[in-house]
Structures are given as C-alpha cells and as structure tokens.
Amino acid sequence: MNTQQETIYAVSSGALPSGVAVIRLSGPQSGPILRKLIKGRFPVSRESCLKKLWDPVDGSVLDHALILWFEGPGSFTGEDTVELHCHGGRAVVAAVLRALSTFEKTRPAEQGEFTRRAFHNNKLDLTEVEGLADLIDAETDAQRRQAQRQMDGALGDLYSQWREALIRSRAMIEAELDFSDEDDIPDSVADEIWVELAKLRDQIVAHLSDARRGERLRSGLQVVLLGPPNAGKSSLMNKLAQRDVAIVTPEAGTTRDVLEVHLDLGGYPVTLIDTAGIRESAGMIEKEGIRRALVHAEKADLILWTHAPNVAAEELPESLLKNGAEIWRLNTKSDLGSDADHDSFETTQEINVSVREEGGMNALLSSLESFAERNIGLIENPLITRERHRSHLTQCVEDLNHGIQAEGFPIELRGEDLRRAADQLGRITGRIDVEDLLDVIFRDFCVGK
Length: 449
What we know:
Blueprint: E1 7-11, E2 18-26, H1 30-37, E3 49-54, E4 61-70, E5 81-88, H2 90-100, E6 106-108, H3 113-120, H4 126-137, H5 141-151, H6 154-178, H7 189-208, H8 213-219, E7 221-226, H9 233-241, E8 259-265, E9 268-274, H10 284-298, E10 302-307, E11 326-331, E12 349-352, H11 361-376, H12 387-404, H13 411-429, H14 435-442
Parallel strand pairs: 1-6, 7-9, 7-10, 10-11, 11-12
Antiparallel strand pairs: 1-2, 2-5, 3-4, 4-5, 8-9
Helix pairs in contact: 4-5, 6-7, 6-13, 7-12, 12-13
Subcellular location: Cytoplasm
Protein name: tRNA modification GTPase MnmE
EC number: 3.6.-.-
C-alpha cells in the first residue's frame, strides 16, 4: 500500500501528563475521521473551535478539545491535517488514540513521518528539514537563530540559486552548440559564461572557507580540561557547571574517564570535558583514562592546560601542539600563591583562577564567551551546518574546476561537468537522487514530528 494514502496520527506535544496534549492527524481520512469524532458544524479551515470528541464505538464523550482543521495543501504536510488539542492526562490521550485506531487505513505515525510527508509534498527541502530538526534540538539562543534561518530557507535558497545558475549556463552553452548558425545566439557566448562560472566557483569556495562555524555551532565547541593530577580540573569543572559533575578528592588520579557537561556561554554552546590527569606513573585503568583524554584533546577547539602550585608539571604531548587548537594556561588554586615553574610550550593566554575563593572565574567565563563568539558567532551569510553539505559542495567545486580548466576539450564534455556540479547542489536540497539518505535524516526525529 502507498503509505501516502494512509492517514497517520501521533501525539505531537511531548511527554505526558501535561496541561494540553496535541494529537495530529495527516492524510486523506483526516476530514472523514473528524466528522465522526465531532457533532454539528464542521470547522472552517485554519480557524480553531471548541468541540466535544465522541467515541465512534460506544458514543461516549472522550474529551472537550480545541479543534484545528487544515485543508491540504495549505498545511505543514501538504495533506488534509487535523490537530486535536486535548487535556494532557494519560487516560484522556490513550482514549483518543484508541478511538483513532478504529478507523480503516489509519495507523500511528513513525518517527519524523509528518516532516517526511512535508518533504515529499514539496513543502520543505532537505536543508529546511534539517533546520527543523536543529530547531527542536537547539539548547542555546545562537543555535536557535541559526536553525531558524535554515528552516526559513536561507541555505536552501542559496544552493538553489547556484544550481539554477549552473543549469542556465549549461543551457546557453548547448544553445550555442546546437544553434550556432542562428542570428539570435551571440558568438562566443561560452567564453563569457566560463568567466561567470569561475566567479560562481569562487563564491562556493568562499562559502566552504568558513572554519566549520555552522557545524561547530550545531554541536558546540569542544573545550578540554587537561593537565596533571590534582591540578584542580574537576573542581573547576564543577564550578563552571554549577553542579557536582566530577568527584573531587585529595587523592591523585580520581578521574579515570572522560566527563562531559554542556554549557550555554553567552548564547553559544560549549561542551566542557574533564579528563584524567596526565602523568607517567599510572596504573592500567588510569592509563586508559589518559589515552581517552588525549584522544578528546586532539579533537578539541580549545585546550585549558591546568597548572597548580606544588603539583608536578607534565609536558603537553607534541601532537596536541600541532592540531590547531588554542591552548590556554590556567593557573588554578591561585589562592595558594604563584608558581614560577612554567611549562615550556607557548599558550595563547594565561588566566589565574581560584575555585575556593572564586578569583578569576569571571575573567575565565568572559574569555570563554569571547572565544565562542570569535569561532562560532553568527554571520550574515548562511552557514554550512552538516558534513554532507560540505562533501557535496566540495565535489561541486571539483566538477566546476574540471570544466573551467578543460579549454580545448569538446564542449559536450565540459557541459557534462556542469551537469554533475548542478546535481551535487541538488542532492543537498534533496531534489535529486536522495532516497538512500532519507532514512538516515529522519531517524532522529521524534514521533509526532
């Protein structure tokens, strides 16, 4: 059976119990089902009304609900859609869902199925779908704003404009090839087109040269606390998180594994990672903790190298000095005095902090917020937010370069390069050959969305 011919339903408003629960239906049976659930005048499309919901089996009242009827294609999914705003008790919702299950060609929705139907009905492209997923998952204001821009089509519109430019250029080149004897086709139009295509390629290259700001904003900057045992990493972690995330004791080597906490710093997402203390004389379990610490440090955007008085200094591994991450030196336990023994490697900045007396904490937080603003602050142009976008854009540039640099080659072959480049952009928005991607994209959506 064509799943688009089935009517689907699900709770779209989150965990129960709640003050209000929204039950959504979408599909061809939405209207007929609503007529059997209510009595009296059928709602006007896109106007809310209060109605009793009647059990279609025994005729009892299920609930008093606010009804919204959206006639397709003027709905989120592009299909006839109903929203039942019921009381959010578990028994109420269970009774309404049980009533819906009695109708033919009607079934519970799968994860992301409402949004998937919106995509298939051309209500959203894939970048907008991904923007919607990011908006639901957004934890900070900056993530919310980026997701909103993407869901509103900023990224998809940009890629569609580039794709249309490639298609027009290819059409003009083929027109010169097919109708070179016609007066209305200018001579050597292809020469001008390749100049314009080189400019378009440069725009895409500039778009790719964004230091992965969009991806960093989606996932959060990775900030790793690294240093010798008893240097105050776990105490600092707890202070920044404002809760007891890590165990703190005078015993060296307490932290054996990697601990993560998500912070909102000035609206920007930061994942702060506490790690095992770096030292040579460590047991088997502690050595594994140190190995994991170094793995996370190699992927970090920022390393906070902790140093405390009367704690034996350790050398930062050479590999971490070459991974491109900034390294800050934190002189922890500054209330105990200073220590002239500095590490041999250079750091971007040095901050004195004391968890016990809260000295330097405001300076550290301010510096972290500035770092986040500098690395993932929103800019006017749309940002790449996923690796799959970057991969298709990179291939698009390669195809464009191949065509632009292939002077003297048959124009048909150069035109084929343009077709491939345009197809790469089409795959980002989901209009060309993306069926194999859909299960991956929609699997993380919640049921009801």
